[in-house]
## 1
Amino acid sequence: MLRLILLCSLAAGLAGCTGFPKLDAAVGPEARQAAYPRLAPLGQILTCPTKPAAAAKAPGADLAARGAALRAKARKLYNAPIPGG
């Protein structure tokens, strides 16, 4: 147990000796002179978006058409000859 504590202390001590990266050099001059982003009111961010009318009225029809298209594609791939085989 004592060895584990000493090992963790040594690892933490060595990690504290590392240098920090120069983050100021990573930001270009155009980013430094850019305007701050416009903040949105918290009420707009927290409200749930309303569902589009097209997606809300018939999701089953869209899924059925998509399923039929996928089944047709699978049937086509299943019946396709294997090249070189």
Note: The chain has a mean pLDDT of 82.
## 2
Amino acid sequence: MIDKVFNKSIKKQFEFDEEVASVFDDMLNRSVPYYKEMQRLTINFALNFLEKDYKVFDLGCSTASTLIELGKHCNKKLNLIGIDNSQAMLNRASNKAKAFGVDIDFICGDIHDVDLSNANLIISNYTLQFIRPLQREKLIKKIYDSLEKKGVFIFSEKVISSNNVLNKQCIDEYYEFKKTQGYSEFEISQKREALENVLIPYTEDENKKMIKDAGFTHCETLFKWVNFATFIAIKE
């Protein structure tokens, strides 16, 4: 379905409800620059670290697109687990996984509470930015502690610039991108208002510092387009 969630006046903050879930795949592809490329890089790098029966978690898996693609491209049996606190998202994820013949276990719950132990790979695409800063740092520490040795954490985030002039230029460039995807200025402004104080991005350096403070010795930027970035960290 085509995303028309914000072509009307908003009455609440952004949430991953049934209305959003019904158009979420279209929303992602039209709202996140180079989303498919980011997903392809995530999968390609992940495949280098995966062995048979490895445990893979996707935090905030939404409609499970990344786990499905990973399952389709990996020639080894994996234990794929998708976690999301939106049952509407997981209902669609479950139907998609069945349609593509990919075996995924889904958990509806708070990622702060779900057991991630013995993980070999943890993925988090545009999820951390919706978590309050203090809780975000605790979650990263939990991710580090849950990963096995040589375990990998791959995550994507919307980022901001520490330079106010550049940050405004990045935002303007992003809004121009959204216009090319068919979103009107009204839709863009409505979504911006709905996301205010809901989506809290860090700078690229702040993301890397958070990762290293949790125990990871290295964090590499795999991909960046203006104010969107994908990172990888390995537990030594």
Note: Helices lie at 18-31, 35-47, 65-73, 87-100, 133-146, 164-180, 185-195, 204-213.
## 3
Amino acid sequence: MTQPLIRPDLVTSPAGPFLAAAELTQTEARSTSSHSHARGQLMGALSGLVSVGLDRQQWVVPAIHAIWIPPHYEHSVRSYGPFSGWSVFITEQRCEQLPREPRAIKTTPLLREAVRRVASWPGVELDDAQTRIAEVIVDELAASKEESLDLPRPDDARLVRLTDALVGDLSDNRRLDEWAVWAGLAPRTLSRRFVAETGMTFAQWRQQARLLRALELVADGMPVTTIALELGYDNVSAFIDMFRRAMGTTPGRYLAAEASTSSPAAYSAAPPA
């Protein structure tokens, strides 16, 4: 049974401090079923990877990133293997000036250090000095830029069947026209419906699905060659090129950065809150 990350009243009640935080490190997978709460939640990863189900979308939270979940949004959570991360809970009233829709962000050293400080507090009303640190978290979230770490799910039953098949075997390299025949759609209809329902072309959607799966496999420590083959790439170089274009670095450097970010030295290098 999954243990609560933080005292329930600091998640569901407007009473108490306007902002509370908790950190979590565990070796086993963690999973919570779909739920919502009155406070907004900012969920970040330091090492490993966690996925968040939001509406018809699946989001991933790789290291040094976070997902913002506004108040009352239904969501589910699942981690993959060893995981270290944190969550911040903000009262609904203080969320009025924050993003109204879920978003992924890249965290800053300042944000991570402020969260670490707040997570050490007992969950009672904040004094003036603590309030200033808590306000840093709110300001950093409000100023953050949105990152693309989600995978939209279509409504059309034929597209749902197709995307489920794609996710079930991302090494399947059939072209759009071949998938159209499989789904019983004209290629132009499939292409048009994909854009209308997901905001992405068929090729973009498949690449995004492969990227999110790659992040999961990298977090699990799978060799890059194995990941490339599992995702349908003809060679490792093609996979690394895709990963670099999307994440700004290679899988190996990404994993090294993740390890250094989650170490105590990374905290000491962060600017003081």
Note: Residues 22 and 119 are 5 Å apart (CA to CA).
## 4
Amino acid sequence: MTTIDPPRFESGRPRRGINWEKWGWIYMRASGVVLLVLIFGHLFVNLVAGEGVKAIDFAFVAGKLADPFWVVWDTLLLWLALIHGANGMRTIVNDYATNPTVRRILLGAIFASTAVLLILGTLVIYTFDPCPVVPADQLDMLPSFCPAQ
């Protein structure tokens, strides 16, 4: 007869430390609920409210990123979605990559790509300049709220 250790036991001994799998599972559920609100709010504002998809241009994006509310909204959307996706990919790798070396390489690639995308995405959101310096013949391309240079 084969016995299975209780979940809090590993090799017949109680497991010590933080249960990262449990917290990853909880994160996936909590972030999924918050992401539903963030994504549908994003889609509603961008595609339904106002003039719809035809109104999305540089000025629309610049106007949104000039408002601190939308900066926080987009930052939350970026971070939660990327970490949620990376955690899902981590779970898939842990389930299907049987070779420990391949698993380590894949998990490292997931971590590295997630870190790079989080850094770059956050930099774009927080350093976006809606009124860049442009040549005089292209001033008509600036959003209406930018002062003439």
Note: The longest strand covers residues 9-10.
